[in-house]
């Protein structure tokens, strides 16, 4: 019983470590905490739990989101994202932002004839839509303004086109502010289409 009690106590301490204590702390867990844990599976579980806590906080901060923020783990990297539907220029689409590791991404998820797919033509069409709508890929302050990547746009086939900036030390408060600004932009697009 003592061993189980100690295990429960240790697990409680670990889970408490992923909670958001202050909006001034960094979005992701510090390496000093994670490097003290020898199990890669436990580190991954803590990263995912932190992403879920951050997502819950963002959903509470922005109650008018179309659907709650999602926290997860992708390629062993923590991820928080929000996806919202809109219609622009007669095209139904979803605009998304993602914070995966130190990358903050603005994403347009597009589909329709000649837009979604893995062909060079569909990729080019997604880029044309992206060029016609730079507001989909604007990065609000305090994020850097110059996007990273070797090309003008990054893709995730069959229907994502995105740009990203590096934001390794983004705080919870800064992420809340950025998420609020992006959400307001998407709501404005929705209102303009009505």
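^ structure tokens above, recovered residues below v
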């Amino acid at each position: 019983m003592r061993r189980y009690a100690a295990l429960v106590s240790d697990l409680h301490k670990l889970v408490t470590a992923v909670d958001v204590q202050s909006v001034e702390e960094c979005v992701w867990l510090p390496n000093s905490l994670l490097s003290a844990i020898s199990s890669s599976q436990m580190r991954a579980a803590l990263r995912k739990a932190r992403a879920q806590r951050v997502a819950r906080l963002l959903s509470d901060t922005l109650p008018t989101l179309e659907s709650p923020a999602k926290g997860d783990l992708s390629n062993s990297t923590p991820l928080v994202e929000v996806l919202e539907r809109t219609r622009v220029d007669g095209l139904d689409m979803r605009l998304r932002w993602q914070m995966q590791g130190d990358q903050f991404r603005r994403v347009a998820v597009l589909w329709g004839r000649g837009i979604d797919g893995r062909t060079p033509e569909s990729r080019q069409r997604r880029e044309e839509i992206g060029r016609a709508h730079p507001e989909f890929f604007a990065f609000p302050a305090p994020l850097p303004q110059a996007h990273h990547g070797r090309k003008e746009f990054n893709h995730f086939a069959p229907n994502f086109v995105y740009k990203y900036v590096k934001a390794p030390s983004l705080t919870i408060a800064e992420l809340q502010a950025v998420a609020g600004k992006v959400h307001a932009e998407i709501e404005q697009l929705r209102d303009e289409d009505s």
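The chain is about 40% helix and 25% strand.
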